[in-house]
Design a protein that fits this description.
Layout lengths: L12 E3 L5 E3 L3 E2 L7 H13 L3 E3 L7 H11 L7 E6 L6 H15 L6 E4 L7 H13 L6 E4 L3 H10 L6 E5 L7 H9 L3 E5 L11 H10 L3 H11 L3 E2 L6 H7 L9 H8 L17
Helix pairs in contact: 1-2, 2-3, 3-4, 7-8
């Protein structure tokens, strides 16, 4: 795999096709509560040097994320804040309303990235038009999708005026989907991972533990480095200060091409989350 990008340190980023720089390592907040837990996690991450914070309406913690952002005292322009429109709110007018509600909960006047959370059949193309409108109004610096397979993306690409900038997908050694990564790359759609640790299952894989010993790193660090070297943005979720710090300690080693290829070869299609072609929420 030929590297076409630079991985330097926690301040590093990948550049989206509209020129916006997206930090390639961020903090995920899924299942972090809306009280002090998420506030402290966001503050600690920013203190360590993270500038990318990912949330979603369905996480029900946007208020807490916003409070953490404000209490961090870091200038808003330095932060990259992401949220997502939930399935029940999809459709043109309802998406615009949901976006305004997310902004209000976060206490922000714009988002750096807004995503369609899931490809709700019969709705996501209209939802995309709403995102295009908000983007053209300069309310969002970048727009994208989450959990979109190739045929979902093809539906969007058929009549969009703005090509999605990001596709956030389940990604780990059991669900690599290289064909989808390549498709996104062909359209300059930045790939991003959720559940990089397979909801903890990755720590049980013998090969991952062997690689951790080989590189004198933790399994989590090896997996996050794997993401970045494949050009994939990673947003590991944690509310523990030491883990948040440890997840950022991945810039003093590099996986070999052979080890990346071996991790890719573990793909078996076993998802930890729902199938984007078969979900009922």
């Amino acid at each position: 795999m030929e590297k076409r990008f630079s991985i330097s340190d926690l301040n590093g980023s990948f550049t989206l096709h509209n020129g916006v720089k997206m930090p390639y390592l961020g903090l995920g907040t899924y299942q972090a509560d809306n009280e002090q837990e998420v506030v402290e996690a966001v503050k600690k991450a920013i203190e360590i040097g993270y500038r990318h914070i990912d949330t979603a309406a369905i996480y029900q913690n946007e208020e807490g994320v916003g409070k953490g952002l404000r209490e961090s005292k870091v200038d808003r322009s330095e932060l990259f804040v992401v949220s997502k429109v939930w399935n029940n709110d999809q459709g043109y007018e309802s998406t615009i309303k949901a976006f305004e509600q997310s902004l209000e909960r976060l206490g922000l006047d714009y988002l750096d990235l807004y995503l369609i959370h899931w490809p709700v059949r019969g709705k996501y193309t209209e939802t995309w038009k709403a995102l295009e409108y908000l983007y053209n109004q300069k309310r969002i610096r970048a727009i994208g999708v989450s959990n979109f397979l190739q045929h979902h993306l093809e539906d969007i690409l058929e009549d969009c005026t703005v090509v999605p900038m990001v596709n956030q997908m389940e990604f780990h050694p059991h669900v690599v989907q290289q064909d989808l990564i390549d498709f996104c790359s062909a359209y300059a759609i930045q790939y991003e991972s959720w559940s990089p640790f397979m909801q903890g299952e990755v720590f049980k894989l013998e090969i991952c533990n062997e690689l951790a010993k080989k590189y004198a790193k933790s399994v989590a660090q090896v997996i996050l480095r794997y993401n970045l070297q494949k050009g994939i943005v990673a947003i590991p979720k944690s509310v523990h200060a030491e883990r948040i710090k440890s997840n950022a300690d991945i810039f003093d080693f590099e996986l070999s091409k052979e080890d990346i290829a071996y991790l890719d070869s573990l793909e078996n299609g076993k998802r930890t989350g729902p199938d984007p072609d078969n979900f009922d929420f």
